[in-house]
Amino acid sequence: MSGVAVIEGHILTPDGFVRGVLEHEDGRIRRIDGDPVAEAEVRQADMPVVLPGFIDLHVHGGGGRDIMQGGDAPHRVGSLHLRHGTTSLLATTMTAPLADLETALGALGPACRERRPGSARVLGVHLEGPYINSGKLGAQPNYARPASMDELQKLNALAPIRLITLAPELPGNLELIPALRAAGFQVQIGHTLGTYEEGVEAMRLGAGGFTHLFNAMTGLHHREPGMVGAALAHARYSEIIPDLLHAHPGAIRTALRAIPCLYCVTDSTAAAGMPDGDYMLGRHKVTKCLGGVRLPDGTLAGSTLTMDQALRNMVGLGLELDDASKRVSTYAADYLGLQERGRLSVGAWADVVVLDRQLQLNQVIVEGEACEFPHA
């Protein structure tokens, strides 16, 4: 992008809100200037609210397309989520045979190398399956198997894998975590029947977080704390799906008190942004109805959540706006070690969302490209 562009409003910097201007040029933030302002004034004033672009580390689909379909799915999915403020994301796979994963990652490789106009940046791949427990599949097809470094290297050659979900109790998975970390993969625990002790050991060996906390893992009991107990007692980072279907507001509040850098993901499917009806999720047919997405037996199968709604839901639970903003952008960036995203600071990527006082989107800027989406 050439030329300096200016955004005026209440701008959330790492040091708090300022009333002033943000300038960006050639895809980067060039200058932020303004006077400090209390958050209470931000929500009462008519000036735009300017926040870091949202970062979603768990996206299966959107706009009628599923990441596992390959082809132009990454662009179609990225376009839908950009309309809702997501400026960068991890395209997330389903548990599947190797050939299906190769099809998906074959399409994701070019999408990761070059962002198409009007689409979110695809940062890489979240390999949610297949290294999970077949007894905690959730909505995953049953192609679960122990982790394989050879398989991972084949897939990573097609598209960069940034995040791997695994069940540490599967044979060999726990012992493989240090090698995965040494190879540059972030590892998190999910779709697991593991014990509290196995969760703690996985974190000791390098697992950094948990996949959709509370869902598809052993629950908390006062004599058997389970994987949820390991997360609440020890984790610094964890995903959570704040659509208010996957986790009760009370459970979300519990996690907020226990996990310092709890961050939001959508776990969105092809049904996001689409009317009620049938859609594909990997090899599964799922149905969108009554505000959710389900398998024929009623099991929740991902969501239709978007990150702008996640922000509003977190504020609705009582979070201050600066705190909620970190949970839809900054903490996810920090988890992946992305210091130039997830924050509005000089030199960072110009990934910006502009909202009104009701937190409805008016504009999204991704790497300096301005997209007008009034009340997307």
Automatic annotation (TrEMBL):
Q: Does the keyword Zinc apply?
A: no
Signal peptide residues are none
* Annotated positions binding Zn(2+): 128, 191, 212
Q: Can you give the residue ranges of the Amidohydrolase-related domain?
A: 49-369
Q: Which GO biological process entries does UniProt record here?
A: N-acetylglucosamine catabolic process
Q: Which cofactor does it need?
A: a divalent metal cation
Q: Which residues form the active site?
A: 267
Report the cofactor remark: Binds 1 divalent metal cation per subunit.
Q: Which Gene3D superfamilies match?
A: Metal-dependent hydrolases (3.20.20.140), Urease, subunit C, domain 1 (2.30.40.10)
Against CDD domains, the record matches this protein to: NagA
Keywords attached to this Swiss-Prot or TrEMBL record, sorted alphabetically, are: Carbohydrate metabolism, Hydrolase, Metal-binding
Coiled coil located at which positions?
Answer: none
Q: Provide the residue positions that the database annotates as binding substrate.
A: 139, 215-216, 223, 246, 300-302
Source taxon at top rank: Bacteria
Per the record, the similarity remark reads: Belongs to the metallo-dependent hydrolases superfamily. NagA family.
Q: Which NCBIfam families does this chain map to?
A: nagA (TIGR00221)
Q: What is this protein called?
A: N-acetylglucosamine-6-phosphate deacetylase
Species of origin reads Caldimonas brevitalea
Organism lineage reads as: Bacteria, Pseudomonadati, Pseudomonadota, Betaproteobacteria, Burkholderiales
